Amino acid sequence: MIPKIVTLSQIPAVAEQRIALRVTPPAERAIRHGHPWLFADSITSQSSEGNAGDLAVVFNRKGKFMAIGLYDPNSAIRVRILHQGKPAIIDKSWFQRKISAAIRQRRSLEKTETDGCRLVHGENDGLPGLIIDRYANIYVLKLYTAAWIPHLRTVLSAFQAVVPKSKVVPQRIVLRLNRLVQNQEELLFTLEDGSLLAGPIFDGNSAFLENGLKFKAHVLQGQKTGFFLDQRDNRAMVEELANGRSVLNLFAYTGGFSLYAARGGATDVVSVDSSKAALDTAVHHFEINDTHPAIAACNHYIIAEDVFDLLRRMKQQGQLFDMVIIDPPSFAKQKSEREAAMAAYRRLNKMGLAVLRKGGVLVTASCSSRILADEFFGLVHETVRENGRTLQEIGRTAHAIDHPIGFPEGAYLKCLFATVY
User: Fold this and answer.
1) Residue 161: CATH number of its domain
2) Distance between CA atoms of 221 and 176, rounded to whole angstroms?
3) Among candidates 289, 227, 301, 231, which has minimal Cα distance to 264?
4) How does pLDDT run across 212-251, given as a tens digit for each residue?
5) Would you list the DSSP string of 54-88?
6) SS3 of 334, please?
7) CA 356, CA 360: separation in Å to the nearest integer?
8) What CATH number does the domain containing 298 carry?
9) 374-421, pLDDT tens digit by residue?
10) Among residues 265, 260, 171, which one has the least CA distance to residue 212?
């Protein structure tokens, strides 16, 4: 894929007129407590119709300012709150302050041989619907609402003013759009997923470091923004537990967990994913890190197959592993999918246990925000008991420092490490 170079000059300026809103008492309470979303059915009156990206001001029942945010007429989340409390001007300086604050929170990562991380985590960093990820000197802005489009020029200018102060000048800046935004072509003004906002044309591959390991992300087309940056701490914990073990990594994608397990001293690692292209990148990751003795000594195998089909066959063949890593995609993106998701997690963990040797380590994760942590951990415990085995927890983990939690719905990642007998 050759990225499309864009200048943003074709995007109309943000409308000067603000939309005045009144909301329900529960919505007022939520805003006062810092919740970043205002839903359409919580709006009781509106001064005018609005377009995606217009600034909407929320007033309380006494007519006093409560909050200001981005209006999106095409979303059930009608307003994404940028600021609440006292009135504020949303301009370049405001965005610079927000981005600077987010970057400061990640400074400890500079000591870990890591230059691949999330710099802005949407709602949780006060910029709802906007993600900024770093891959060495390539940066990716991802939008989850078209309401950010009219503000892109200001945000980009603010970002370019802030980042050089962190001693890493962006070589390229890439724009990614989630699927819902991609489908709103009339609001994109020729922008496309994978557009290049700054820097020379390239093939989309970006090399970066994570805890001293070399990785490659395809930032134009890869899942998320090219890599699952949120699992960094869990990958490091796998490394600590992998010595002398045979490891099965399910939903391996480009082999992040696999590579850490190898560096930790795993004897054999099997990476499983339905995408052969992703697994080819996993092989590449082993190749570019083979100067490390433990990685060079590890036997790494890839299997491009449906995980459920493979686990069924492995059980029939009596194959067993000392560590099984289960890191599936989100099974519940909507409330209506919760029940099916819980059933899928139960089935998947049951099948994973069937190929885990007695005394082996189970690493099982969920990235479904609709499934609460206690629900997920309880499900794993129940599944182990129902299959006549016992579990001793090693640890429970949640979000890394660059994926902070700022509101209840922002807590999506949870992972359990346990020894199963």
Assistant:
1) 3.30.750.80
2) 9
3) 289
4) 999 999 999 899 999 999 999 999 999 999 999 999 999 9
5) -EEEEE-TTS-EEEEEEE-TTSSEEEEEEEESS--
6) coil
7) 6
8) 3.40.50.150
9) 999 999 999 999 999 999 999 999 999 999 999 999 999 999 999 999
10) 260
Tokens of 375: 């629900």
Report phi then psi at 78, rounded to 5. -70, -35
Hunting for tokens 């060079």 — which residue is that?
296
Q: Do residues 99 and 105 lie in contact, with contact meaning Cβ atoms separated by under 8 Å?
A: no
Range of the domain at 59: 19-84
pTM assigned to the model: 0.94
Residue the block writes with tokens 């927890």: 393
CA distance 292 to 334: 43
Cβ-contact 82, 71 below 8 angstroms:
no
Q: Tokens 């557009």 appear where? A: 195
Q: Which amino acid is at 277?
A: A
400 vs 410: CA distance, rounded Å: 13
Residues 326 and 342 in one domain: yes
Rounded CA gap, 145 and 330, in Å? 20
Q: From the DSSP assignment, how many helices (H) and strands (E) are in the chain?
A: 11, 20
Phi-psi group of 229: left, alpha or beta (phi > 0 → left; psi -120 to 50 → alpha; rest → beta): alpha
Within this chain, do residues 164 and 79 fall inside the same structural domain, yes or no? no
Lookup: tokens for 306: 């449906």
Phi and psi, residue 315, nearest 5°: -65, -45
Contact 90, 82 (CB under 8 A): yes
- Which tokens in the block code for residue 95? 């965005």
- Shared-domain flag, residues 278 and 386: yes
Residue 231: how many other CB atoms lie within 10 Å:
24
> Distance between CA 103 and CA 7 in Å, rounded?
25
The string of DSSP letters for 234-245 reads HHHHHHHH-TT-
Strand pairing report for 246-250 and 321-326: parallel
Tokens 């072509």 belong to 185
